[in-house]
Specification:
The protein has about 110 residues and is mostly helical. The protein is built from five helices and no strands. InterPro entries: NADH_UbQ_OxRdtase_FeS-su5.
Length: about 110
C-alpha cells in the first residue's frame, strides 16, 4: 500500500481511498492544529472498510443468518431426501440407494 501499486503493477485497490483521506488531512489540519482531522473520520472509515471489509462481512453474515432463519421457518414441501441427494437421483429406488451406501451389490 505504501507505494500505491497493487500486485499487478497498477494502483492498489484502496489507493483512491488513501488519496482521498490524505487530501482531507491536508486540507483540514496544519502543523499547529490537528483537531481538524476529526472531519476526516468518515473518509478514514471508508479507507478502513476498503482494506478490511468488516462492514461487508457483517452484512453478509446478517443476510445469511436471516436466510437460514426464514428457510428453517418454512421448510420445503418436496425437498429431496438424503438418499436421493447422495446418488444424484441416478439409481431411482430407495433400496438401490441403501445398497450403494452399504457397499453391497445386487
Amino acid at each position: 500500500m505504501a507505494s500505491g501499486y497493487g500486485l499487478a503493477g497498477g494502483p492498489s485497490r484502496c489507493f483512491p481511498f488513501w488519496q482521498e483521506l490524505l487530501a482531507c488531512y491536508v486540507v483540514n489540519t496544519d502543523t499547529d492544529d490537528v483537531s481538524g482531522g476529526k472531519k476526516c473520520l468518515p473518509v478514514l472509515e471508508d479507507y478502513y472498510e476498503c482494506l478490511h471489509h468488516k462492514k461487508e462481512a457483517a452484512r453478509t453474515r446478517a443476510l445469511q443468518h436471516a436466510y437460514r432463519r426464514a428457510e428453517a421457518a418454512h421448510p420445503r414441501e418436496n425437498a429431496p431426501k438424503a438418499g436421493t441427494v447422495r446418488n444424484l437421483g441416478l439409481l431411482g429406488k430407495e433400496e438401490d440407494t441403501k445398497s450403494v451406501l452399504n457397499g453391497s451389490q445386487k
